[in-house]
Structures are given as C-alpha cells and as structure tokens.
C-alpha cells in the first residue's frame, strides 16, 4: 500500500483525503504541514496532501511557498471538499447562561490559523471576548481541549475530532457560508493510479524578464488568443530581489493538448522562465 502524508489525525485534511482516496492507502499523520512536505520529499511517504485554497480565505500562502520554494514535488491531482467548522468544547454548568450569548463563558479558542477568516461572523457575535490561540491543526486544538476539560477553553474543528477525542459539539457549522470549500493537492515524486476525471489542469510558475516592458501582457496574450482558460493567476515575490515577482498560474487544460505547449514556448521566447509544477486530473466534490 502506498503511504500518504496528511495533516492530522482527525483534521479536515484526513476527512477530505479519506473521502477522495478511500481506504486503499496507508495514511500517516503529521502535526505540521512542513512535516507533510518533508516526509513526501524524503520518500518517507509516497504522497502528501496539501490544503491549498479555501472559498473564504483564498490561497493558503504558507503552503504555496513550501510548494514553490522548499520542495520539488509535482502536483498529481486536486479535489474540492466541503468544510464544516464546529465549535467544540465542554458546556459550562456554573450560573445562569446569557441567552444572547450562550458561549460567553469561553475565554480562549484554539484552532488552525486559517479558521478565524472562515468563521468571522460567528466569532464576532459569540466569541468576541475570547482570545484566539493558533495551534498546528484544528484537531490539535480539540485534543488540547479534551486534555484540559475546562469549559472556558474551546476549539473549532471537525466532527470527527469531536468524536475521536470525546469532546461535545457546542454548535455545528459555524462557518460564514454554508458552501465553504477547500481545494486540496495531492503531491508526490511518483504518479499514482486514480479514478478517471474529464477535467485536467496544469500549474506553472512564470518569472518575467526584468528588462522587458509589457512582458506580463504578452504572457496573458499567449493564452488569450489561443482561448486557453486561466482559472487562477497570483503574483508572489521571488524572495531573491526586492520588486521581482513570479506568477503562479492554474490553467484549465493539459500539456497533452496542442495549444498549451505552444503557449508556453511563446512565453519562453520572450525571455520568461517557466517552471511546470504539475499536469494533473481535477475533481469536483461529489457526495
């Protein structure tokens, strides 16, 4: 069985990965995303799962930086999975509860750093007096709450973490929008056999030549006149020199097509550096 590194256990990454890959893989949990990358890069695991983008927060920039700057791991697949945030903790039994704020007794909330942006409305209404403390994963927050057994400390995390650590869910689905989705990447040095998909994506990095006015316009034109759809484009600093950037581009299409390779050749012809991060199947969410 191939070994898959995930952020976990009992995290959204584990829920999403088990839903997508099933039980034909051995899942290895790590507390930090850096450990997921390093385990896959070193060969300790065959594949790694990386949360890369969320409906509400956008790109997870730390994870993009790891993919670009720290490791050389081709993208092998992507899929989208719904994320339901839950307030998890022990209810207070002391005194009369305030009906306008039933969670006023909570003084500290533990979770992953991406969570507040996804639950801002609920936290503003019910947890404005609570301190937010960042931990390595949503599941780690629930584990700490389980060990403390203190009603004043709660976590925001998964239903599976609530069950596994024996901590009640105080309020289900507290995210700002019910269609909150996260996009996950499967990365690894070797390809893996996956179910068929009608959609393909290619992700590239384009670094512009410093002394070429209008280079970005020409890059975009190379795709535009061929009617190649760019599903995402982001500029990020190269970290080599102030004022220099690369463009992280997701393309709806495959390198096996006729048009995409010729577009890349046109971009390289004007002096741009192009790095291909992966050409891979893309999967939408299905129950």
TrEMBL record:
Record's keyword terms, sorted: Amino-acid biosynthesis, Aromatic amino acid biosynthesis, Lyase, Phenylalanine biosynthesis
Domain ACT, residue spans: 204-281
Top-level class of the enzyme under EC nomenclature: lyase
Domain called Prephenate dehydratase: residue spans: 3-189
A single GO cellular-component term on record: cytoplasm
GO biological process: L-phenylalanine biosynthetic process
Organism domain of life: Bacteria
Residues the UniProt record annotates as site (Essential for prephenate dehydratase activity): 182
GO molecular-function term, one example from the UniProt record: prephenate dehydratase activity
Residues passing through the membrane, by range: none
PANTHER family assigned: PREPHENATE DEHYDRATASE P PROTEIN, PREPHENATE DEHYDRATASE-RELATED
Protein name, UniProt field: Prephenate dehydratase
Native source species: Paenibacillus silvestris
């Amino acid at each position: 069985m191939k070994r898959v590194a995930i952020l976990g256990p009992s995290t959204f990454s584990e829920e999403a990965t088990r839903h997508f890959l099933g039980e034909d893989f051995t899942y290895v949990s790590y507390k930090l995303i850096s450990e997921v990358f390093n385990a896959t890069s070193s060969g300790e695991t065959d594949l790694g799962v990386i949360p890369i983008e969320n409906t509400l927060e956008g790109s997870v920039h730390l994870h993009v930086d790891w993919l670009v700057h720290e490791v050389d791991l081709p993208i092998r697949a992507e899929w989208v999975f719904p994320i339901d945030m839950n307030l998890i903790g022990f209810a207070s039994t002391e005194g009369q509860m305030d009906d306008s704020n039933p969670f006023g007794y909570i003084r500290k909330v533990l979770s992953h750093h991406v969570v507040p942006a996804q639950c801002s409305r609920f936290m503003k209404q019910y947890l404005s007096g609570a301190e937010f403390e960042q931990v390595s994963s949503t599941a780690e927050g629930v584990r700490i709450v389980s060990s403390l057994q203190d009603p004043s400390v709660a976590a925001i995390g998964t239903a599976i973490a609530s069950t596994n650590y024996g901590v009640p869910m105080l309020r289900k689905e507290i995210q700002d929008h019910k269609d909150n989705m996260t996009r996950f990447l499967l990365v690894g040095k070797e390809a893996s056999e996956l179910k068929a998909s009608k959609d393909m994506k290619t992700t590239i990095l384009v670094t512009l030549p410093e002394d070429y006015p209008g280079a970005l316009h020409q890059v975009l034109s190379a795709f535009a006149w061929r009617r190649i759809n760019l599903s995402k484009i982001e500029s990020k600093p190269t970290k080599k020199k102030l004022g220099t950037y690369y463009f992280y581009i997701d393309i709806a299409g495959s390198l096996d097509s006729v048009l995409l390779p010729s577009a890349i050749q046109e971009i390289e012809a004007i002096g741009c550096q192009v790095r291909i991060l992966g050409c891979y199947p893309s999967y939408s969410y299905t129950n």
